Amino acid sequence: MSLSVPSPADFHVHLRQGALAALVTPHVREGGFTLAYVMPNLKPPITSTDQALAYKKDLEKIDPYVEYLMTLYLSPDLTPAEIRKAKAAGIVGVKSYPRGVTTNSEGGIESYEVYYPVFEVMQEVGMVLNLHGEIPSDTFTNTCVLNAEAKFLLHLIKLHRDFPKLRIVLEHATTRLAVETVKSLGPTVACTITAHHLALTVDDWAGQAFNYCKPVAKFPDDRAALQEVVREGHPRFFLGSDSAPHPPGTKSTCTPTHACAAGVYTSPILLPLVAHLLESFGALDKLENFTSTYGRAFYGRPVTKETETRVTLRKVEGKNIAEKWMLGQESVVPFWAGKDLNWEIVN
Ligand SMILES: [Zn+2]
Q1: 103: pLDDT confidence band, cut at 50, 70 and 90?
Q2: Which residues have CB atoms below 5 A from the ion given as ligand 1?
Q3: How much is the pLDDT for 322?
Q4: Full set of structural domains in the chain with CATH
Q5: What's the gap in Å between 83 CA and the centre of ligand 1?
Q6: Predicted TM-score of the model (pTM)
Q7: How far is the CA of 316 from the centre of ligand 1 (A)?
Q8: Tell me: the pLDDT tens digits for 225-271?
Q9: How far is the CA of 38 from the centre of ligand 1 (A)?
Q10: 240: Cβ–Cβ under 8 A, 6 or more apart, which residues?
C-alpha cells in the first residue's frame, strides 16, 4: 500500500542558525517537505527585512531545494515602513511571541495595541500575522501552562474583530477551545496543528523532557478535538510542525537551576509521522489536505504543474526512528526516538 502527497508544506518550523542549522535544515526534505515557513526567533531575533533575506540565503546555501517562506519577529523595532519593505522583498509573515513564554522570546510582546499601526499596514499589503497563542504565567491571574492558551483566545478574537481582513494564524493549537474559537471566526483566521500535539497529552510530557514543548500538550479531550478537526477536513486547519531542535544536553540534563528547553523535534520523520498518526485516528484520507492543500491555499501558494514534487509513502511493518541525528559536534534527538512508524518515504 502506498500513497503520495504533492509538495508537502510545513507552515511552522525552526531552522536555527550556525552549526545547528547545518544539521537540521536538510531534515526538512528528509522528512518529505519542500516548503518551510521559517520562524524568526534567532539570537538576535529577525526583526528586519535585511536580516530575513540574509537568513534565507544562509538556509539556501544549506539546501537550495526547499522553498523558504520568511517571517519577521514582532517587536518595537518593526515599523509600518519596514512592513512595506518586507512585503516588497517577498517576506510572508510576522510572528508574535508573548514575552518570556518560549525559546528566545525575551523580546516578545506585552500588549497588542501598540502594534496596531503595523497590523494596519500588514492588513493592507497582505502579510500574515502568526500568533504564539499563550499569555505569560501569572500568579495573580491564576495563569499557568495549562490555561495559558485558553486565556489568550480573547486576544485572537479582538485582533480579528479589529482587523477582519488581516490573515491571522493561531499557531500550534492545543485545546478544544482554540479549535472552536478559530472555527467561529471568519475566513481570514486559520490554525496550525503540530504532529506531536496529535499524539501527546499532559501525561506524556510530565516527567519526559523530550516531549516537553510550549504550548504544552493538554487533556485527552483537547487532543481529541485536534484529531477531530483534522478528520473532519476543515480547510482552515493545517500542518505546522513547530519542529524545534535543541541540543540534547539542554533537554535531558536539566538541573535545579537550569530548566529543560521547550521543543519537540519532528522534521526528519515528519511526513511518515503524520501519516502514521492520521491513520491511527481514521484520517489518513485527509493527509494531502492537511499537509499540502489547505495550508498552501490559505497562504496563496497552491501547487502548480511546474512546481509539483510528489512525495510517496509506503506502508511498512515498523520503521524504527533513529535515536539521534548528528553532524560534527551537533546532535538532535527526534520525537518518538526508538519507536516504530508504519510509513516510510519511498523517493
Ligand atoms: Zn514554534
Answers
A1: low
A2: 242
A3: 92
A4: 2-345 (3.20.20.140)
A5: 21
A6: 0.95
A7: 30
A8: 999 999 999 999 999 999 998 888 787 767 777 778 889 999 999 99
A9: 9
A10: 10, 11, 12, 13, 37, 169, 171, 172, 192, 193, 194, 295
